[in-house]
Every structure is written in structure tokens, then in C-alpha cells.
């Protein structure tokens, strides 16, 4: 590689040293002067001024007030600063460096030697990363780092022992072949010398270079070194005699001559052996020279063709390009002048746009003008004060937009409420003006206008509430003072209070619709400013009411548009929540607690709140939580008062109850029939003012009192007769009232359902205390608790159990989470009924046991004990038969009959009477026959238990004992 570079350098130096080449370059340099241009060779100049003018027009650029010379390679003058100079300095520069130079060199022409590359880029391997020690390495075999290649796992490990068999086989053949080859070479050399006529007569013929000492073959043979000198001239300095030194010198000289002869003989042998290669190289050199002459001739012809092409085609083409460039420059200057004229008209145009309230166009014009002044008209002195004026104008527009927005919002929200009837297309006044203002604020990225509108809307709502209260008080004849917030001082009646709330909700809905309309316009304007159409999907506004938006390009980013949209959404939520809180503050005062509100008033209040909440939810899409909670609090207070009154009334009725059956009014029978055929929730549409049982609400009435049917002693429920006490009828009426109020007031349906459970538990526990716990003897003045009292209470509990699933289903349809305690109440009632039946069994068993204890199996028959037992059974039947149904009565008598048999078996076992056919067995059989005849007469037992199996069962049991 170094040899090739050296050859190229030598050939280049030979060419440049050629006198023909030097003469050509000198003539070329002498012909180039100010009469021609390096880069425009087709142009010739008659004088220096033309050349200077050409440089100023074609090879000079003006940047601001500075001139930059471009007369140089790649359009850069090496003698002029890059920042440029003034006009005078530019002329001095041209005269000094481009006109008055006696000799100017040719611009560098590109050749293969002009190609260059960065050394690190050539030497660094991009696949191997950065090399730290690149410039510290030495060129050679170790320049490229050797990478360790791991042995392949697919190749076996080859050792020397694997080749022992091959070496032992081939070794003999190779040595024989080597011996023959050596003999042939020696023979061939002898023949060649004999053929060439060379006869070796030199004593050094056949002597090898081994006879020459090694020191003479080294490159570093320095006789100035003492050790080297002593090896070349051994012992010459040790001789003290001059004659001996001369003899030694002659011997050394002969040795050196002998060594020189050996080397010359070897060189002659090498030259004789390589003579054929030398003559071949000379022949090749002649062929190469012939080819080079042919190549030079072709290159000369090609250059002549290119020069002709340059004169005929390139010069004219470049001239056309120069003219096109000059025309483009003229057009650029004209455009620049037109742009300056347009910028000069910016202020009058701004005044015109502000007069038409086109704030966005005015702000766009300011921004565009500022951009033009910064980029295209930079350095123009006539516009040096215009940027500051535009900034002040922009601040003025910002203040104007803010004041106009506040003025518009105040006027729109404080319009008279009667104007709502005159508004047809939109509830927003001067829609176009609002769009212009909002678009301008968005263009200024002044997003605080949403908060400003929120504050104005809240202030307007506060003023509307105060105004409505003042107008309502002015129409009232009572003297009412106001608090500082404009609310009444708790002196209004419930009817006036509800009427005030109704008017207030209407006024607030009008304000909310106005806020919604303005918010909708602002949303559409924001969407248009952001380049989307999301504004047409505003909540609660028909998409048919399209907003007339101004034509403007999108200038809001997606993040800014989302920020404004979120603020507008929060605006509606905050305003609606504020309305709910203010109305809730009106619902919350204690004036409702001072008076007793009827259910109609609570229902009217609930309907007002529900209508207002639904309207607000349609507007803003959120539920009215504060107002509904205030309504629920008032409804719960009403429900608490209602429940406490009914609970107290039930306690009074139970304490004064004599536990005697009463006649069933026809209205109550109709009520039960209606509940049986229909849902209990439909009672709300079948109510009237007819009195029922101490002024209770009736559910059916007749126009003529003579048409009313008489009262019935029994109540038929699904064809099952019920004999009841008056408290049970009132309890059913109370339960129906709870269901009706739950239907009218769904907001407290769950609370009323839990109150029903509490009322039923109260009735169950108190009736158990009075009847089973014989509390009625001391409270109501009863002499004793009879079986009739127990049976009447049992029938009342059965009636409640029949009604309980219907009540549960009714409240479950209103509030599924409020029926958790009905199963427990049902189990308590069934347990209470079982205790009542057990109490009847206990009373009868005590009478039967006392009579059997005194009985003895002896005549007369029937005995007095069995006669008393029959009387007790007949009295029990006479007492409970008109009250209890036949099936329940038979169940009671079956248990009494079983207890009788058990007691009789104990007595027979005690008396020792067995089934032996004796007289005592006959007495027992006669007594049991009398007992069974009594039961058959009463028909108190099922038919299958009225046979004579008792005669056999008694004795079988006795024998088993």
C-alpha cells in the first residue's frame, strides 16, 4: 500500500516537473484577470467598474445594512468577515482582494485527490463500537484486534495421535521424493550453467553465504561501535608494531575481498536465474505505455468535446438561470413592498374590526402582524415602534373583552323573568355578541371567564331568591321580618311556605335554563375553537338549536379545549348544586316542626321537589342530593310523628280493650275484599272522608246512608270467617294507612316499612302481656282471661298473618331493602298463636286432670267426674266454636282428647284396672262410651277419631306399661 502511494507521488511529481505542463499553467494564470469572472466564464468585462458592478450584483448579498461578499468557493469569500461590512468597506474590499491582485490562482478543480474522508470514520468499525486505543496502535498485523473464536461443538477434538498412522505411512515416501527432487534441481542447475557457456573458474564458486560472517548481513552495521569494529577488524588494535598492523590489515582486506566476491557471485546467479522475469517486465512496460498513450488521446478528445458543449449549451443555460434569478429578486422586492403597505394599514383595520366586535380577527391580525415584523420585516426602521403599539392594543382588547363579558352576563342573568314568555328560539339574548366575546377570550387563552360567569350566576340566584321572598311577603298581610340572607324568619305557615317554594323553583328553573343556554353556546364556541363538533352534544339542549359561530380557524389545543369543557361542565354542576342547597335551606327551617303538616302538604312538597329535581337533572345531568335529603328529613319527621301517634293510639286501644268480639262494619269488609282482589297499593285511589271506627279513614262510601248495609258479626277473608276485636280492626286500618303513605311518599317508604314492623311487634308484645300474661285483669278490669279471649286474640293474629305478605310485597316494590324484619315478625306471630293454643290446652287439661283425680271405677254410671268433664268440653266448644274455624277447633280438641287419654291411662294404672273382662273394665267402658258420645254430639273431633278405637287403645297402652 505504501509502495503504491510512493509510485503515485513520483508519477505526479514527474508530470508537474514537465516543462510543458508548467508553461501551460503559467499561460493560464496570465490570461485570468479582472476581465473575466471565475464563476461566470461566459462574461467579459471592458473595464474595472463593470467587473466591480458584476461582483456587487451577482456575488454579493445584502443583510440589513451590511454587504456580504460571495465571490469565492461555495459562495464564501475567504477575505471578508461573515457578518458583512458597510458599502464603503465593501468597495475597498473588492479593489484590494479581487481587482488589484496581479495574479489570481485558478479555483480548485475537483479530482480523485479532492475526495476526503474522516480518518476515524474510516478506521473505526461501526459494528464494533467506540475504540479507545485507536490512535495509539501501530500499523501492522496487530492493528485489528483478534477476537477469540470458541471451538465448535460439532467438530471432534483432533490430536497428534490421530495422524501417527498417516505420518508413518507417508514419511518414507516423502523423504524419497525430497531426495529425488534435490538431485533433479542440482542437475538442472548444472545443465543451465553449461548451456549458457558459464564455466566456474572462481575459487568462490559453489561457496554459500554461510562463509560470510553474519555481522556483514545485518542492516545496522555501525563501525563506530567498538564491539562491531573489533568483530570486523579483529586484533588490529592489539599490534604495537606498525608492520604487523599493515600485515593484519592486508589479511583483513583479502577476507573482505573474498566475502565481496562471494556476494557478487550469488548476485550474478540470482540475476541469471531471474533474467526471463526481467525481460517479461520490460515487455509489459512497453504495452502499458502504449495503452497510456491511447488513453491520453481519448481524454484529449473528450475534453475538446466537453469544451465545445460548454460553449454551445452551458453558457446560454446559465444566462437564462441568471435572468430568472434576477426576475425572482424583483418579485421578492415587490412582495416586500406590498407587505409593508399592508402592515402600514394594520391600525385602521384593527379599529374597524373592534367596531364590528370581531375580536378574534383583531387578535389574529395582531399576531400575524407581530410575526411578520419579527421574521420578514426585521430591521425596517419605519416599523420599530409598531410592535410595542400592537402589544398595548392587545392588552386593551383583553380588558375590553373582560368588561364586555361581565356586562353581557349581568344583563342576561338579571333580565325580568316575564321575558321568558317572549323568548322563542333561544333563552339567550344577543347570541352573536356572546359568541364573539367568548371566542375572543378563548383566543387570548383567558379561561377565567367561566369562573366569572359562575360567580355572576350565583349572585343572580341569590338576588332572585331574595326578590321572590320580598314579593311573596309583600302580598301577605302578616308582618314578617327577614334575616340578613333574605330568608324568612320562620313565621310562615306551612301552606305559605310551600307556595313560596313553588314560585321560587319556577324562578330558579328559568335562571338555570338561561345558564344552560349560555353554557351551551360557550361549549359550542369552545368546540369550534378547538376544531371539533363536540359542542353539539351538550346535555339537555336540542342539537337542532345550532349556534351561529363565526368563521375562524382552530386555535385551541386539545388540552386547552378539554380544560375549558371541564370547567363548563363543573359550572352547571356548581350552579345546580347551589340552587339545591338554597332550596334545602328553605326546606330545613323549624317552622315545619312547629305546625302539624298533613300528608297532602307533604305530598305537595314532595311533588315540588321531584319536579324541580327532574328539571335540574335534565339540565345538568346530576341528581338533587341536598334538596332530596332535606325533603327526606322533613318526610321522616312527619313519619316519626305519624308513627308515634299511631303507636301511642295502639297502646291506648290495647289497654282499654275488653277482648270481646265486635260487629264488622260493611266498609271494613269491603276493604278486606278489595285487598284480597287487588294490590294493596291501589288503596290510594279508593279513599274518602267517611268516618270509620272513631274517625278513622274509610275506603268505600255511599251517596245515601240508607243504602249502607248493616254490620256483620263475621269478617270473611277468602271465604274464611274471622271473629275479631275492635283493636284488630283499628290495627288493620293503621297498617293500610302506612301502606297508603308509603305509596304517596316513596322517599320514606323504607322508613315506614320499618315502622310497620315496629308497630306489629308492639301489638304482639303488648297483647301477649295483656292476655297470656293476664295484664288485662289489672289494666282493663277483666275478672279473668277466658278461652274466648284467647281465641279472639288468636284470630286477630291470624288476620295480621294473612295481611303481612301483602304489606311486605307492597313495601318491597317501593324499597327492596326495607323488608328485612318481616320474617321475624311472622315467626313471632306464629309462636304467639301456638302459645295461645297451648294456653287453651292447659286450661282444659287442668279441669280434666282435677276431675280424673277424684274419679273411681264404680257405679253410678256415668260418674259425676265424667259428667263434669263433658260439661267442660261442651262449655269450651260453646266458647270457641263461634270464634275459631272448624279446622283449628278440631286441632285443639284433638290435643285435648290426647291429653285426656294420657291422663286416663295414668289413672287406670294407678287404680290397677286391667283388661280382664271384670266389672271394673265394664265401668271404664261405660264411662268412655259416655265420653265419646259427648264428643260425637259436639262434632269437635275429625271423623276418623270418633270411632271406638279408644276402648282398645287404652288397654293396649296399659298392657304395654
UniProtKB/TrEMBL annotation:
- Please report a single Pfam family linked to this protein: Vps54_N
The source's domain of life comes to Eukaryota
Q: One GO MF term, please?
A: syntaxin binding
Q: Where are the transmembrane segments?
A: none
Q: Where in the cell is it found?
A: Golgi apparatus, trans-Golgi network
**BP GO terms, sorted:** Golgi to vacuole transport; protein transport; retrograde transport, endosome to Golgi
Q: Which residues form the Vacuolar protein sorting-associated protein 54 C-terminal domain?
A: 721-846
Q: Which UniProt keywords apply?
A: Coiled coil, Golgi apparatus, Protein transport, Transport
The keyword Transport is assigned to this record: yes
Vacuolar protein sorting-associated protein 54 N-terminal domain spans which residues? 254-407
Q: Which GO terms describe its cellular component?
A: cytosol; GARP complex
Coarsely, its chief localization is Golgi
Q: Which PANTHER family match?
A: VACUOLAR PROTEIN SORTING 54, VACUOLAR PROTEIN SORTING-ASSOCIATED PROTEIN 54
Q: Which family, according to UniProt?
A: Belongs to the VPS54 family.
Entry protein name: Vacuolar protein sorting-associated protein 54
Please name the source species.
Glossina morsitans morsitans
